[in-house]
Amino acid sequence: MADIKTKSFVTASKSSIKDPQLRQALEKVGTGFDGARREAIEEISEEKWEEWRLKAREIKEHTIDNLDYYLDMLYTNVTNAGGYVHFAHDDNEANAIVSQLVEENNVKIATKSKSMVSEELGLNHVLEKLGVEVYETDLGEYIIQLAEETPSHLVAPALHKTKEQVASLFQEKLGIPYDEDIESMARTAREVLRDKFLKADLGISGANFLVAETGSLVIITNEGNGRLCTSAPRIHIGITGMEKVIPSLEDLSTFLRLLPRSATGQRLTSYVSIVTGPRRITDEDGPEQFHLIIVDNGRSKMLADPKLREALYCIRCGACLNICPVYQKVGGHAYGWVYPGPIGSIVTPNLTVLQNAKDLPFASSLCGACREACPVKINIPRMLLNLREQLVQPSDGSKSTSTFSENIAAKSYTSLMKHPSMVKLGNIMLKGLQKPFVRDGVVSSVPIPPLSIWTRSRDLPKLPDKTFHQIWENNLKDNQDTNG
Amino acid sequence: MINPKGIKASLYVTCIVDQLYPQVGVSVVNVLRKLGVQVEFPIDQSCCGQPLFNSGYVSEAKELALRVIESFKDSQYVVVPSASCAAMFREFYPSLFESDPQLHDIAQNFSERVYEFSEFIVEVLGVNKVNASGDGRHTFHTSCHMLRELGVKDQPLSLLDGVEGIETVDLPQREVCCGFGGTFSVKYPHISEEMLSDKVDNVLSTSCDTLVSCDMSCLMNIGGALSRNKSGISVKHLAEILDEENS
Lengths: 484, 247
Hints:
The complex is a heterodimer.
Chain A: H1 9-18, H2 20-44, H3 46-65, H4 67-80, E1 84-88, H5 91-104, E2 109-112, H6 116-121, H7 123-129, E3 133-136, H8 139-146, H9 163-174, H10 182-199, E4 202-205, E5 209-211, E6 216-221, H11 225-231, E7 235-241, E8 245-246, H12 249-264, E9 271-275, E10 289-295, H13 299-304, H14 319-323, H15 327-330, H16 341-351, H17 359-362, H18 369-373, H19 380-392, H20 404-417, H21 420-434, E11 438-439, E12 442-443, H22 451-454, E13 460-461, H23 468-476
Parallel strand pairs in A: 1-10, 2-3, 2-4, 4-7, 5-8, 7-10
Antiparallel strand pairs in A: 5-6, 6-9, 11-12, 12-13
Chain B: E1 8-11, H1 15-19, H2 22-34, E2 38-40, H3 50-54, H4 58-71, E3 77-80, H5 83-96, H6 101-111, E4 114-116, H7 117-124, E5 137-140, H8 144-149, H9 155-161, E6 167-169, H10 184-187, H11 189-205, E7 210-213, H12 216-228, E8 234-237, H13 238-243
Parallel strand pairs in B: 1-2, 1-3, 3-4, 5-6, 5-7, 7-8
C-alpha cells in the first residue's frame, strides 16, 4: 500500500498554503481546468449536459447494484478473448499476482501508463524490489517519478509543479541543460521514453472503463503513451478497481462524452484505446499475454454501505477537485494519500483507516460545488456528513474520535437550546462578559477559543441590547395590523 | 399567484439573527407585513440543530429537530431568513428520521412548509418587486446552501433589482463559498481565512457600499473581515434592504 499520511492533514495543509510555488501551480486548477469544463458544457447546452449526467448516473447505479453479475460477464468475455482475469482482495494480493507474472516471464523492464490503482497499491516499489526497471510514461507521472513524489491530482499528477521546477528536475536527473520551454521538455521525455517502450517486456496500464459485454479495457489519454504501453511489450497487465466495469459499448459512449469534458474540457481525448484480449493469430502486433487484475482493496466495504455506495460511481475526472475551494488552497498532497480533493475525502478514509483520516471529512465547508460539478452527480457533501457521524457516533461499536470537551460542548449546547429560558440567561451573561472586549461597536479580540481563532482575522458584532425574542415580545407582537 | 392577504407565515428567526442581528428579524416582519402577510412568531423556538448535525452529533441534532417541528406544528408556512437553516429543515430533517417512518412523515410534512425568505416572497406570494427604495452601490453574495441545497438562485437578485434608487453590481465569483462552513471556520481557520480573503478581494473589486445576502452566517464571516479591514463596506440582509423606504 502507498504510504498513508492522512494524520498530518492539518500540518500539511498549513505548509501547502504557505508555499508560493504551489499557490502559483494551483491557480491553474480553477481558471484552467474548471473554466474549460464550463465552456465545454456551454457548448453543448446545460440541458444536454444534464441529460448525459442523468444517463451516466443511471448506468452507474445499475452496474454497481448488479456488480457481481457484470464482473462475472466481464470475466467470461475477457477469458473468451484469450485473456486472464485475476481478482485481488487487497494490495498484497494484487502485488503478489504482478510479482508472480514478473518472475514467471523474466521481466526486466516495465512501462506504465497512468494508473491511480497502482499508486494505491504501491506497485512501483514492489517491482523495483524485484529488480524490474519501471518507467512511468504519462508525462506528469514521469515527472513525479523522477522527483520521487506522489500524484497531487487525479488527472494532472504533477499539477503541483511549476515549469521551472520541472526544468530543474530534468537538469538534475537527466543531466541535460536547464530549459523551461514546455515543448522541449516534453520532447526530452519523449526521447527517453521511446527507447523504454521499445525495450519493455511488460506494459502496465490502469483502466478508465471495463466493458463487460466485450471483455474490453478502455483507456483514454492525450499522449498516446497508453496505447504504446498496452501494445508494444510482450505482456500487458491491466490493473484497476472493481467499480470500473460498465455493461456495454453503448454505455461507454455516454462516459466518453462526459469524462474528457469534465476533466479538461475536451470533447474527446486524443487517444481512446479499447483493448480486448492479447494479440490474435491474425494480428500484426500486440502483447502475447493479457492479464486483468481487478482490485477490491476496501471497495466492497463501500459497496455494502448504502450511504457510501455512490462513491463507487466516480469516474476519476477530477472535476470536484478543480472546483473545490479547499483543494484549490491546499493542493493534493495535503490529503495524505492517493486520492485527494472532495471525492478523495470519501474514498481515502474508506480504503485506509477512517479514524486516521478524520480530518478529511471535516475539512470541508460543505459548499456543495463538488456535487454540482460531478458528471455522475455524486452527493459528496452528504457522504462527508455521514462520515462525520461515523467518526463521532459510530454505529459499528468502534471508538468515537471526538474529544471529551467536544462531547461536553455538544451536550451542553443541546440542553441549552432545549430550554429557551436558559438561552435568555446565557445571553444576559454574555452581554456582561463581552463588555471589556467591545471597541467601536465590535468585538475584535477575545482570548478564549474558539472566539480567539475567529477574531484572528474577523471582527464579531457585539451582542445588541435586545434579542429578537425580546423585541418581538415588547414591540412587534401586537402590531399585526398597523402596517398591513 | 395567490393573494398575500390573509396568508399566515411563522417566522423561524435563526440563532444568529436572534442573538446578533435582531434588526434583520424586525425587517423580515416589516416586509412580510408590508406584503399583507400575517406574521406569527412561535416564541419557544430555538436552534435547528445544524451545528450539531454538521459536527457528527446526529442524535443531539434529532432532539433539537423534534423540538423545532413541535414549535411549528400548526404553521401554514415557515419563513426563514437563512438559506442554511432552511436547507437543514428541508433537505436534512426528513433524512434524520429515515429509520422511523412515523417521525419521517412528520419531518417530511414540516419540511414541505419551509421557505427561505426571498423564495417565499417570489414563489409563494408571487411577488417580484417589493415597494422599497434606497441608495448606494450594492452587490449580492449567493450562499452555498441557497444555491445548491435549495436551488434558489434568481429570486433574491430580482427582488434586489426591484429596489428603487440603488445600483446593483455583479459580484465576481458570486457562487464560490465564503469559507464560513460553521465549525469549519474555527476547526481549519488557515483554510477558511484563505477562502474568506478571496471573497473579500472580490467584494472590494466591486467598489460597493453594501454587500447583501440572505444568510447572516456568511455575512458575519465576510462582514467580520470587511470590518477588520476598515473597508467601510456594510453588510445587510436582503430583508433590511426591502424594508427601507425613503420618504
